[in-house]
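Explain this protein:
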Amino acid sequence: MIKILFVCHGNICRSPMAQYVMQDLVNKKSLTDCFYIDSAATSTEEIGSGVHYGTRGKLHEMGIPLGNHRAVQLKRSDYDEYDYIIGMDQWNRKNMLRILGKDPGNKVSLLLDFAEQPRDIADPWYTGNFDITFDDILEGCEALLAHIVSEDRDRLYS
């Protein structure tokens, strides 16, 4: 099983959006049993809070189901649990590495590092634009899934 953890600042906007978008993509490719996908925050500000209404609304608009996610904080032990630990922007990466320590397995990256044009994903908490955030997350999740299918084909189809 391939385990992915998406991370953003508060775990109520971008990382749960990525979690549910990726789960939807995996489900549509009939790879559900091959993946475990979750999300976490670098901060403690929103711990226990549900998914932001803007993220919830955008996922509903796009027909992507979401569960009853509650924000949790990234912890050092997550490094050993997950194959991919994916942040949304450079600030997330800095804070992820502060929490996780070293990255000897090269597990930490940004979601759009897998896309043709690597860049940060804007936080809709500040921009208010969940449409652009969704488009970037979808692009990143599609690219990440293509990367995993290419790199981990043996684990997926054995």
About this structure: The mean pLDDT is 95. Residues 110 and 145 are 14 Å apart (CA to CA). Residues 2-156 form a domain with the Rossmann fold fold (CATH 3.40.50.2300).
